[in-house]
Amino acid sequence: MATETTKTTDILDPMLLSDPIGYITKNQEIIFNFSWNIIYAIIILAIGYILAKIISSVTYKLMTKACIEMTISHFIANIIKYTFIIFFIIAALSQIGIQTASFIAILGAASFAVGMSLQGSLSNFASGILLLIFRPIKVGELVEVAGKTGTIEEITIFTTTMLSADNKMVVIPNSNISSSVITNYSRMPVRRVDFTFGVEYGSDLKKAKEVLTQMFEEDNRVLKDKGITVIIGALNSSSINIVCRVWAKTEDYWGVYNDNLEKSVEVLTKANIGIPYTTYTIINKQ
What we know:
Layout: H1 2-9, H2 15-18, H3 20-26, H4 28-65, H5 70-95, H6 101-117, H7 119-134, E1 142-145, E2 148-155, E3 159-163, E4 169-173, H8 174-178, E5 182-184, E6 190-199, H9 205-217, E7 229-235, E8 240-249, H10 253-270
Antiparallel strand pairs: 1-2, 1-5, 2-3, 3-4, 6-8, 7-8
Helix pairs in contact: 4-5, 9-10
């Protein structure tokens, strides 16, 4: 190997400038071998690039068929592509006589240094990969996560973007999401709607329960096959609480809740069921 290195260095002999034809004649074997090494290196690079593209494309198609998120499919396909390209670049450099051991060592040290300086970003990256693979949240879903509630707009490798109810854009690092409790309001097709109605002591409780049950039965959005629960929930200091539980499709949740909350005042009043309210007694000691 030492002999080959010496011969390669001879190509830079001053004779190359003073008598190029004589130099070529004298070193034609070395030049011939060196030229073929360059050609081999170019062929290695070309084959490597083609293989990298083919393998990357096949990987992306397989991941797409497996219904893996497009973002992560693109990312992994690109990682595979550039890993192959770097490998074949190193092989090509080695073919023309360049020592690659030190190059690999420098590349490894640089990768380690970059990794140490980007620990936070790498944590977000790992969390983003997990979110895209396991999909606890999806675009368009209403969720509560990391202390924020909103509709998911975009999930990227490093951050997740959501819109709050008052149309504020909230960007959350993915590591915050993976380390917190996730409440997904949209994932299940049906949800239970809970109500608590307070009535005065002395009210006809049987009648109150009947009119509330009828109110829910008249609402077509309430899923009757899931049952309607109307029970006495608590005896408070100033009211008797009637707890009602019904089921509705997730998209009908707020409509069922708001409409029936408003209608309950009407049906209880018509049935002469008193709705308590806070009263204050003021005593003048003068």
